[in-house]
Amino acid sequence: MREIALHILDIAENGIAAGADTISILVNEARKDNLLKLEIKDNGRGIPSNIFKNVTDPFSTTRTTRRVGMGLSLLKAAALRCDGSFDIESEPGKGTKVSAGFRFDHIDRAPLGNMADSVMVLIAGHPDIDFIYTHIIDENDFVLDTSEIKKELEDIPITDSSIMLHLSELIKNALKDIELKGKMS
Amino acid sequence: MAKLSIQDLKKIKENAAKGISLRQEQGRIKVTVHMGTCGIAAGAREVMSTLVEEIAQADRQDIQVVASSCMGMCSSEPNVTVQVEAEEPIIYQKMTANKMRQVFKRHILLGEVQTDFALAKM
């Protein structure tokens, strides 16, 4: 994966495939602590314990189209090679939480990349699922909760292409804002 | 916590209001972007965001975009399936932003299947 934002998109898709109706995405750029932390949480059906023990093994998968499953193993490898950490917790029936940490200035750390597009594509492809996206840069943060947006939009579908583009622009600007705020303080 | 302001939401709503009358025919055309790990690593996100841009530019509300999982053809990702009404779905392979634009303008808007990029008919 060329961007960490693509890992996030991938792991979020796993949650959706597990039947979740809400996905929480947290990106925490603790630049002062030289850390980049991710957390992707879903309320899907969780991972059965017999599968869980091999969940980051690329040759273990529940998919039926092929015998390899790369998503979690790729993220784990990416985090660990950046002096980082990886953790997955899952409770059958309740959901799954995937966390990963990267040393922020590690030379092998992929750029965070285009989070606005990753989030936009998730919303566009899954109109019935709610996404709560929180992005922290040091002490400033930004939250986007699609359930609030849907309420405000009433009968207009959130997937309307003009709304999608607007949302993507909004996220880009919000991220610029919180980055700037940090630099000025 | 910085949240979306009411103003932002109002703006979003205003932006959408213009298309309401056209929305009855929603879902006449369905475009599926396959978003497995393989598709995402190969560039499916750019393909999908290009598709959303093209739909907004063409101001069409009858085109439904769907993300689905990998269909087992990882080596030909990013794959996109286009289904126009009752016609047979066409799967496109090795898509890029530019190929997506061409498929949108030719196949989706004009009905000309782009056989050069097609993988199969379903």
UniProtKB/TrEMBL annotation, chain A:
Histidine kinase domain mapped to chain residues: 1-106
Keyword Lipid biosynthesis: no
Catalytic activity: ATP + protein L-histidine = ADP + protein N-phospho-L-histidine
Keyword Transferase belongs to the record: yes
EC number: 2.7.13.3
Pfam families attached to this UniProt entry: HATPase_c
Gene Ontology MF: a single term: protein histidine kinase activity
Top-level taxon of origin: Bacteria
Gene3D superfamilies: Histidine kinase-like ATPase, C-terminal domain
Key words of the record: Kinase, Transferase
Transmembrane segment boundaries: none
PANTHER family: SENSOR HISTIDINE KINASE
Protein name: histidine kinase
Upper taxonomic lineage: Bacteria, Pseudomonadati, Thermodesulfobacteriota, Desulfobacteria, Desulfobacterales
From TrEMBL, chain B:
Pfam families: 2Fe-2S_thioredx (PF01257)
CDD domains per record: TRX_Fd_family
Family annotation (Gene3D superfamilies): Glutaredoxin
InterPro entries the UniProt entry points to: Thioredoxin-like_sf
Domain of life, source organism: Bacteria
Listed name of the protein: NADH-quinone oxidoreductase
Organism per entry: Desulfonema limicola
